[in-house]
Amino acid sequence: MTNPRLSKTKILLGMQCPRRLYLEVYHPEFAEVSEETEQILARGNDVGQAARDLLPKGILIDTGGDLGRALQETSDHLSRRKNATLFEAAFEHQDVLIKADILHSRSGTIKLVEVKSTTLVKPYHIPDVAVQFWVLKGAGYEPRKVELAYIDNSFVYPGNGDYQGLFTKADMTEEVLELQREIPKWVKKCKQVLRGDMPSIEVGDQCESPFDCPFYSYCTEGTTMPEYPVGLLPWGGKTAEKLLELGICDLRDAKEDQLSKPLHRKVWRATKTGKPEIDPAVSAEIRKHPYPRYYLDFETIAFAIPVWAGTRPYQQIPFQWSCHIEHQNGTVEHKDFLDTTGDLPVKSLAECLIATVGSKGPVYSYGAFERTMINAISEMLPGLAPKLGKIRSRIVDLLPIARQSYYHPAMKGSWSMKSVLPTIAPSLNYDSLEVQHGGMAQQAYLEATAHGTTAERQRAIRENLLEYCGRDTEGLFAIARFLENAAAVQIS
Ligand code: SF4
Q1: Strand 109-115 and strand 96-106: pairing?
Q2: Contact residues for 421 (Cβ-Cβ < 8 A; gap 6+)
Q3: CB within 6 Å of ligand 1 — which residues?
Q4: CATH class held by domain 6-195
Q5: 160-184, pLDDT tens digit by residue?
Q6: Cα 17 to ligand 1 centroid, rounded to whole Å
Q7: Angle CA(19)–CA(24)–CA(25) in degrees, nearest 5?
Q8: Is CATH 3.90.740.10 the right assignment for the domain spanning 281-484?
Q9: pLDDT recorded at residue 124
Q10: Which regions of the chain are under pLDDT 50?
């Protein structure tokens, strides 16, 4: 069997898991690529393009997938020009192919720059650049310096397409040189994997680190997972490890004294008996809250490369909220806001929110996100900060209250709204909605604001988004009602 060509990416995958390397090469059809992975890849491409745009004299080696021609063009440019900046320059050494994001050649001295969409240097970036350095050197060049260009999240976009300062750089040369002796071993190991049969490897921590593996379903197909795996214990990694070492895979097989945290014992008890637990004292806690009561949820968007002047990379910008308002006489109103103009939505969103939530009554959220968002909006709009600060001081986070007082075995260790709702209000599910989670809401927002989206399509997207965010606050309202009635409620 001849070896398929290796690449930097394949070597990194082989380091994560030899079986993953084998499957990527011989059975890519078994991969299930998540929406999130696709979004990460698309973001990487955008960031790569932004880095290239900052170097207008650079030359892109673009041969439409013809690797032989890419190698030849790279070699031609480097031999013909004393000084050159190349994008996607291709090099090969011992059947390992790399494409360098940015390569600066100055009188024969080469600097390699790898562009990342992260805001930090991550441990897995080091082998990434080390392999590139090794190939470059092996191909007969003299790389002197290796840098990682990554996003500076303190950069504030001044507008007018000016992205100078978007990237910050880290000199990785020392770390890369230290790893050079290891690389031939990695390459040899990867080649052995590809010459042999599919490695038999159990699923484990490597399936998620440093990247989620798209072969997880394939590797776990046909295996019977326990109905209540010990891993469902919230913040219970070490306890789960100990139980697994004792051969206990299903939480129902554990003994109470093997669990020390009260929360773990509650989860275990409910799971073992199959009966939900609720603390009736929570009713009084909710009942003391005055009316009107507001149930609030934001949807946000974040761009690696900011599109609005005055914003930063990855800054969460709210573009939508939904608010259910419960009055003392039992009536419930619904108000919402959604901006799909593509302009910075924050000012009109905040003004509308202030007008809607008035000056008194609790503002319920589920998790800390709404409070964080109100802080973020206050920073962006200092003139509205006092009014927003008052709203923030009224926020009541129902998540810790629910965690403290309620657990149903079907929640399987999670108090997320999507885990709690089916146990108390099954009709409020998201299955029938076009937009079913925050990631989909972001994609829908991007489509609604994209040039070329028809007015008709935009209307449909708006309806979907409004329905989704409205469902979130309907759910929040249902959870509050459930907790308030806990003393009397009969749960099945
Ligand atoms: S799911 Fe896990 S065991 Fe299977 S190939 Fe991926 S990393 Fe390897």
Answers
A1: antiparallel
A2: 428, 429, 475, 478, 479
A3: 17, 19-20, 23, 201, 203, 206-207, 213, 215-216, 219
A4: alpha beta
A5: 999 999 999 999 999 999 999 999 9
A6: 6
A7: 100
A8: no
A9: 94
A10: 490-492
**Cα separation, 461 vs 440, whole angstroms:** 11
Residues 6+ apart with CB under 8 A from 355: none
Secondary structure letter of residue 92 according to DSSP: E
Tens of pLDDT along 143-158? 999 999 999 999 999 9
Q: Ligand 1 center to residue 219 CA distance, Å? A: 6
CA separation for the pair 30, 218 (Å, rounded) = 6
Burial of 281 (0-12, 13-18, 19+ CB in 10 A): exposed
What is the chain's alpha carbon radius of gyration, rounded to the nearest angstrom?
Answer: 27
Q: What are phi and psi of 145, to 5 degrees?
A: -145, 140
Residue nearest to atom 3 of ligand 1 (CA): 203
332: tokens are 């419930």
141: left (phi over 0), alpha (psi -120 to 50) or beta: beta
Determine the residue of 10, 19, 32 to mutate for testing ligand 1's pocket, defined as the one with the most ligand atoms within 8 A of the Cβ atom: 19
Place of tokens 């200092």: 382
Dist CA 405 CA 196 (whole Å): 54
Nearest CA-CA partner of 15 in 220, 217, 206: 206
Q: E strand or H helix at 126, and its extent?
A: helix 125-138
Closest CA to 166 of 39, 38, 42, 315: 315
Q: Cα dist. 473→188, 334, 404 in Å?
A: 55, 9, 21
